[in-house]
Amino acid sequence: MNLSSHDTSQAKNHESICRMNLDANDFRKAMGSFATGVTVITVDQEGEVHGMTANAFTAVSLDPVLVLVCVDHRARTHAHLHARKRFGVNILRKDQQTISDYYARSAETHQHPEAAGANFDRTAQGTPVLQGALAYLECRLYSAQPAGDHTIFIAEVEEVVVRDGEPLLFFRSRYHDI
Question: What is the pLDDT at residue 178?
Answer without folding.
Answer: 86
